[in-house]
């Protein structure tokens, strides 16, 4: 669980870095993204510390998530602010589902990990809701864009669990 969660938070920081590289920091959408990025960085640092403390090997796919995340962020931002928000809404929908499933699996077996996942899940849901309120569904070809990003997110989760 730690391996895939750390990989996901790392990927999120790279997506937001790509979006900010294209959008800059002067628009309301860019300022919203910067705030989300700061939270994702805090999540990543927390999981980094847990991985180190528990001796868990990070995913070997991290170099791929580094590049893929940045380019997904840059590409969606290049389409426009609504597409950048659509990316966030799609990913956070999948992360909400992923974290919910993890919490169900964990039960009472690992209070430290459960607490972190529950806290971060609440923030991911907040990100999704903010993105939807900021116009995610007005992005060009939103249903297709959202479905493709969600599929990619599920694939990244599955691969990071195993590799």
Structure description:
This protein has 163 residues and is an all-alpha fold. It has a single domain, classed as Ferritin. It is built from six helices and no strands. The protein starts with a helix and ends with a helix.
Low-confidence stretches: none
Biggest beta-sheet profile: none
Instruction: Tell me the CATH architecture.
Output: Up-down Bundle
By oligomeric state, this entry counts as single chain
The SSE order reads: HHHHHH
| Spatial extent as radius of gyration | 15 Å
Spatial shape: globular
Task: Report the top-level CATH class.
Answer: Mainly Alpha
Short description:
The chain has 163 residues and is mainly α.
Can you lay out the helices and strands and say which pair or pack?
Elements: H1 2-23, H2 28-54, H3 62-79, H4 81-106, H5 111-133, H6 142-162
List keywords for this structure.
Ferritin, mainly alpha, 84% helix, globular, 163 residues, 6 helices, 0% strand, single chain
